[in-house]
Structure formats: C-alpha cells, structure tokens
Amino acid sequence: MHEAFPSEPQGSRRSQVDRGFMQVRSISTVVLACSLLVGTAFGQNAVLKTGTSEHAAPPTASTPTPEEAPKDSLGRDTPYATVVGFLKAAEHGDWEHAAVYLDSKQPPATKQELARELKLVLDRGLKLDLEKISKNPLGSPTEKWRLTRNEIGTARIDDHTLPILIDLIQPTAKRPPYWLFAAETVMGVPEIAANLEAPWFEKYVPKILLENRIFGIQLFRWITIPVFISLGFALVWLATWVICLGAERILRKPDRQNVVVSRSRLLGPLRILLLAYLLYLAAPFAGTLVARHIWRHIAVAVTIAGIGWLLIRALDLAEEIAEARFKRENALSRITHFKLSNWVLRATVALGTLVSILYVMEINATTLVTGLGLGGIALAFAAQKTIENVFGTVMIVVDRPVRVGDFCKVGDFMGTIEEIGLRSTRLRTMDRTLVVIPNGQLAATMAENYASRERFWFRHIIGLRHETTADQLRYVLEEIRAYLKAHSKVEPGTFRVRFIRFGGSSLDLEIFAYVLLADYSAFLGVQEELLLRIMDIIAEAGTSVAFPSQTTYLAKDSGLDAEKSQAAVERIRNQRNGVLAQ
C-alpha cells in the first residue's frame, strides 16, 4: 500500500523469503486470506528481483573477466534493474543506498531526502506496470528522447506532472555504464512533492499503527487487508449464490431432475477466479507502486491456481461421466485406462500450475528443483511400496490380466473385480466382503480369470448299475454321442463318450465336451439340459444310475475233501523222496 508522508523509519530491513505454491483446494476464507496476506508481506523479495547483490552493499570496483563485459556492482545495468533496485532500498527505508540510484550532486542528506520524496511521488502519482520497463542494457530509445534516455512514465499529482526519466551514465572507459534517475526528474521532485498530502483516512489511524511495520508493511495495513479480503469473499459468495439461484430456476423442468448448480464441483474454482478478478481490479488502488505490482502478481497467481483447480475438477467430472457411460455400454475394461490417463492429466495440470505460478511470481525455481531432486531420492526409498503399486497399475492396464467386472481367483480369494485404482484393486468375494489387493502384489501374483473363458468344459463321470447288459450299454453310448453331435452349443469334434472302467459299484462312463458359451450362467443352463437328457437316455435303455452298493452271497460250508487231500499229500511226498534218492 502507500507510505505515510510525514515520517519514515530509518535503517535497513532485509528478509530472505522462499515462496511456495499452495494449490487452492478450498474456498475457505481463512486459508485464502492467509495466503494473500503472506503474499503481501513476502512478495516484495519475490517479484522485485534484479539478479544483483544486496542493495545494502556499498559500491565497489569490479574487475571484468575476459569472458564477459564489466557490470555495475549494484546491478544498474538496465532501466528495469535501476527502478527495482531503488524501490527495494526504499521499501526497506534504506535511503542512503536508495540515493545511489539518483543522478544528483547534492549533499548526502539532501540526496536521501530527494530519494524519499521520489518514492512518494512514484507511489502516489505513477500508474505503471514494472514489467513494462525495459530490461535491455541499451534501454528502449524513442524519437522523443535521446538514445541514452528512457521514459518509464509520467507522475501526475493534482494539476502537476513530472516525467520519470532514466539516463544511461558512461563515466569512463574503465567503469561499466549504468542507469540512474535523470537529473531533470530529480530536480523536479521537490516541487511536485510539495503538493502531496497524507491520505484522509490516515488522520484517523493511531500513530503507532502508522510508524511501526512488520515485514515492511505498516501495522494498520495488516488490519485493513484481511477486512478487504473478507469483503471480497462475501461479495463473491453473494454473487455466485445469486447466479446459482437464477440458474436453478431457469434449468428446473417438471419432467426432469432438478439441476442443482450450487452443488456443482466447478463452483469453488469459479469463485476463486471471480475473487482473482476483483483483486486485479483493486490492484491499481493500492497505495504504493510496489504494492500495486505485488497485488497484480497475486491476482494473476490466484487466477492460475483457479484455472488449474477448475481443470482438475473438470477432469474429475469427465471421469465420472465416462465411467457411467462405460458401465452402460458394458465396456468395463476401458474404465481403468481412462482413470490412469486422467490421473496423468491431473498430475500434469498440477505441475503446470505450480510452474506457472513460480514464473509469474518471478521465483527462481532452481533451488526448488534441486530440493525436489534430493527429496525425490529420499522419497523413493521411503515409498518403495507405493511406487511398486503405481508401476503395478501400469502393468495391469497394459497387460490386462484382469478387468473391472471379471470373476477371478487371486491367491486365496475368489470374486468379482469392482475397481482397479492407482494403488490397489478391490475384489468383491462370494461372501460379499471387499478384499483390497495392492496392485504391485496383484501384478506379481498368479491370477485365474474365469471371465476370459470363451468356452466351458463339460465333463462328468456317470456310473450305471452292474446289471446293465452290454447291449444296453451300447445303446446308451450311441444315443449320448448322437445327442451331443446334434446339440448347437457343443463344439463339434471335441466331445467323446466312452466306457472307461468297471467301478466298485458301477459301470463308469466318461462324458467329455466343450460348450460354446462365455457366460457362466448360460453354461449352467446348457449343462442342466444335457444332464437331464442323459438321464432320459439311460431310462430309455432300461437301466439306471448306480448307487454305491455291495453284493453279498450266502452258501452252506461243505468242509474239506479228505480223499483229495490225502492224494495230494502222497504225491508231494513221493516227489520229495525221488529227489533225495538222486
């Protein structure tokens, strides 16, 4: 905001500030208000960058290297660097070094006073976007001025005007050229500054709130900024509520479901974008040139965050619509592909939003990238399982061992795949319990997918009673073969019907065939039909299916035959005596 005219605190205040990106995920007043306050407090070091050493360092002679041209020790190599360097020193109240940016031969005390007055003139009378100032070491000469002079704008206070000029100074061949506020501008500052008055509301602000600062901002600003942000939130909330109420009344149809726009996922990002627009409109009314510059950058950063949030919400909404459509079309395998692609898009949008905000706020991302690289290595070791599950997801999507809706057996669990997420897969068992399987484990586990069968195996062993005659058995075999051959759902050339063995209690027949069906429920119907017809054929042959049984025969014991026993004994005895005699 703007400075108080009567007095300014002396001394140098420095702060090293690292600004990070906070993706707006909520429209909470407290969260966004705090982020805007932090941006106001710390934004000066982020958006006013000159790429030079600290402004508090005294000017010293620099020795040029053979590879590069000599540069000014204070970084006053371009008009932009000179203006920004002056504003940085002035914002910290360091008038001694702010005076270094003026082309004036006045005594140090007078020169510092001129610097303070120039700062007030720039704050109160100059409407300028700092980014439009030339960053070329040779400036941007125009026909109106000589080649070594640039005009960055015109300060207007009441009926008085003052061109703000920057001159290129070329002292000697040994020293590099640099840019300073032109002597004509510096000489005209006292006259136009005499017409400055403190803002009317500062008359009602206690002196302690005007003279004391936190991070270079007056205390009363820390009170007024949250108030204005809260009012902005209230205005945005009221405007969106009115818009949603009107949309609901327009879109409400008697024969349709009410369209409740106020509950849409896109409403939060739209509110953020509207708030950013209000901030951009209010930025020119900030009290200082630096504050206006900062608030413009904050408005643009909030706009980028709102757009990123809006895109992510739109991708979420598209995922829900696509998932519902794929389920209607029974294209469940495409759901996982779409979710993985959508996750990659969301991550890309979030990263692009972060990079864009860092670029807009002119924050050097080199340190951040280096930190992310080192942190990424540590994170990779700490999150091995998570990374394994992510790669498992990719393998499942590419290889497609299972799909949503498939009936599978994974390890000891059997059920239907309900969802394949980025980290895990959910399987609904026959007991209606939900089993969550990490994708890394699923990719490395043998999974049996019953849904991928293009045909079902029909195989049964049927036992007939032992009383069944050979002709009856031949009749049963021929009739079953003829029936399977004529059936439209039995694959030709794959069926066989054979008498395979004499069982303990039955004559066993093996019936083997493939049924050309992919749906298990339909197969059960065909199998039932086949089994019932086989029962009819067995009944037509005059026999029946055997039950486990055992036959017992009863007879009178006749004892041993004494005559035959004596003859056998004598025979063996004679053979033994003959062998011994030889």
Task: Report a brief summary of the structure.
This protein has 582 residues and is an alpha+beta fold.
Characterization of the model:
The chain has 582 residues and is α+β, with helices and mostly antiparallel strands. The chain has four domains: 48-198; 221-382; 392-452, SH3 type barrels (Roll), CATH 2.30.30; 456-540, Alpha-Beta Plaits (2-Layer Sandwich), CATH 3.30.70. It contains 16 helices and 13 strands. The chain has a five-stranded antiparallel β-sheet. A hairpin with a 2-residue loop joins β4 and β5 (217-218). It is rod-shaped, with a radius of gyration of 46 Å. It starts with 28 loop residues before the first helix and ends with a helix. The relative contact order is 0.07. Residues 1-47, 49-67 and 254-262 have low confidence and may be disordered.
- How many helices does DSSP assign? 16
Oligomer: single chain
Please give the order of strands in the largest beta sheet.
Answer: 9-8-7-6-10
C-alpha Rg (nearest Å): 46 Å
Give the class from helix and strand content and strand pairing: alpha+beta
Q: What are the segments in which pLDDT stays under 50 over at least 5 consecutive residues?
A: 1-47, 49-67, 254-262
Largest sheet: 5 strands, antiparallel
What is the approximate shape?
rod-shaped
What average pLDDT do the residues reach?
75
Total count of strands: 13
Q: What's the N-to-C terminus distance? A: 140 Å
Write the H/E string, N to C: HHHHEEEHHEEHHHHHHEEEEHEEHEEHH
Domain count: 4
Strand fraction equals 5-15%
Q: Give the helix proportion (percent range).
A: 40-55%
